[in-house]
Design a protein that fits this description.
With 476 residues, the protein is of the alpha/beta class. 39% of the residues lie in helices and 17% in strands. Among the domains are: 79-159; 210-323, P-loop containing nucleotide triphosphate hydrolases (Rossmann fold, 3-Layer(aba) Sandwich), CATH 3.40.50.300; 392-468, no CATH class. Strands 4-3-2-5-6 form a five-stranded antiparallel β-sheet. It has a five-stranded parallel β-sheet with strand order 8-10-14-7-15. It starts with 6 loop residues before the first helix and ends in a 14-residue tail after the last helix.
């Protein structure tokens, strides 16, 4: 990618306080405290605001703040002891609120602060009215805690909250060339834009599609070390990464015993990382529920509860490569758990990101101390504005009008998938809607077809039913 070094200056001029030099995050060492980039950059902006490189005195100040406010895994008992001694304690932590109408202990709503090992803290109802996301998927923020006669209580809560003006964001796109904008997107994701070619940039941007498109379900297959989960860990608290442990129908869909909705109902994107190593309870029930959900966006389990959700599902899996760095197997999904290889399930996956075409991440590919172009969008704002793009239906309508597949009888899901993926690429790269037909075909439509073709290739090989349709996907 050939981008001039003055892009740093332009990003600051256009976005102001919403821009940040990503090297500040690196020098702050905040992520070593176990917090995501969207939290760490919020801390930087709150404690030592600025867009230039982090100065030594600023690094010292933010580290001092972190020691006092960000609890480590060994600090639970210390914080509880301070509370027991009547202290008011101020900590940065995720807060989740649950409501149990049947519980005998009042009030029926209570806060969980899992980093602190506190499962039932009193929280004022006014905070729930101000910040309803506490009830949906939880929020990160600075809380003041005290120990009252009734138990642990939250006295105040200052959330991480980016302000998103979607129309203003769209208009900022006009200040940048396409190459500059694609570089800005990579920097905002934490990557060095000068290290990737055009195809690799397309693949990295494809990881953003489930954020900008409702109910967009993807799979990424790659060897270890390509950073499949990196962006999902660091982009937004509304994206939930599941890595290790048990995955059950209650966790994904709904707990029939309590009526509590699972991850797919409460988050914008759910990512199952390294699916080969996850332990799935009742896999037949899981794949049955997923097939229904991926097809129509309805969540249910045994008919007891039903709701709609626009959550996207992303499956990340490792695959083996040969000496030419190509997949060993023609059937790419053979290394997935058997129940996820069912063609009726795979058909509902919109596209496959061929992560094996990306280089293994090293210092050269991420923002580092010597990265020349390093100013991007703050992660909390970047994640929120991408999610806000879900409500912009203009690109979807454009693709519905202009994209159709060749053939006498094109397969409906192929056409729908290509349109959805192309509209997602358009939202990410051309949010202002101003795109030439040539650029649309090169940067939106072609990558979309390639991603869906990989799914279609699997279906074609696994099930003769699909061979009644054209094998090669081409647009009319």
């Amino acid at each position: 990618m050939n981008v001039r070094s003055d892009l740093n200056r332009k990003v600051v001029e256009v976005f102001g306080r919403l821009a940040i030099d990503k090297r500040r995050l690196l020098f702050s060492q905040l992520q070593k405290r176990g917090i995501s980039a969207y939290v760490a950059e919020w801390v930087l902006e709150s404690v030592v605001p600025g867009v230039g490189p982090l100065l030594p005195e600023e690094a010292h100040k933010v580290q001092d703040w972190a020691k006092r406010v960000i609890p480590g895994p060994k600090d639970q008992n210390i914080i509880k002891h301070r509370l027991s001694q009547g202290e008011t304690v101020r900590v940065l932590t995720p807060v989740e609120v649950e409501v149990d109408l049947n519980r005998k202990k009042k009030p029926s709503h209570f806060a969980r602060l899992r980093l602190l090992g506190i499962d039932e803290a009193y929280i004022p109802t006014e905070l729930l009215e101000y910040y309803p996301d506490l009830l949906r998927h939880g929020m990160w923020g600075v809380v003041e805690l005290s120990q009252l006669a009734e138990g642990t209580a939250i006295l105040s809560f200052k959330p991480m909250q980016a302000t998103v003006n979607l129309e203003l964001f769209k208009d900022t796109r006009r200040s940048f060339s396409l190459e500059e904008w694609r570089a800005l997107l990579l920097i905002s994701m934490g990557y060095n834009p000068l290290a990737f070619n055009e195809e690799e940039t397309n693949l990295l941007l494809a990881r953003l599609l489930p954020l900008v498109q409702k109910n967009l379900h993807l799979m990424e297959l790659a060897p270890k070390g390509t950073g499949k989960s990196y962006i999902y860990e660091n982009i937004s608290p509304k994206v939930r990464l599941v890595s290790g442990g048990n995955v059950s129908p209650a966790v994904l869909f709904v707990n029939n015993a309590t009526g509590q909705w699972g991850l797919l109902a409460r988050f914008a994107v759910v990512v199952l990382d390294e699916v080969q190593t996850l332990r799935f309870d009742k896999p037949e029930e899981i794949v049955g529920g997923l097939k229904g959900y991926l097809a129509n966006g309805k969540l249910t389990r045994g008919g007891l509860y039903e709701t709609a959700s626009d959550c996207g599902l992303v499956l990340l899996a490792n695959i083996q490569l040969d000496e030419r760095q190509r997949p060993v197997r023609d059937i790419l999904v053979e290394e997935l758990p058997f129940f996820l290889q069912e063609t009726a399930f795979l058909d509902r996956i919109r596209g496959i990101i061929p992560g094996w075409r990306l280089p293994k991440l090293s210092g050269d590919y991420l923002i580092g101390p010597d990265t020349e172009i390093s100013v991007g969008l703050k992660s909390d704002f970047f994640g929120d504005v991408l999610l806000a793009m879900r409500e912009d239906l203009g690109p979807d309508q454009y693709c519905a009008r202009t994209v159709s597949l060749k053939g006498e009888r094109p397969y409906k899901r192929n056409e729908e998938s290509v349109r959805t993926l192309a509209a997602g690429f358009m939202k990410v790269q051309f949010p202002h809607g101003d795109v030439s037909r040539e650029d649309f075909e090169r940067f939106c439509l072609r990558p979309a077809i390639e991603m869906r073709q990989l799914v279609w290739d699997q279906l074609y090989r696994l099930d003769g039913e699909y061979r009644q349709y054209e094998h090669n996907l081409e647009c009319a």
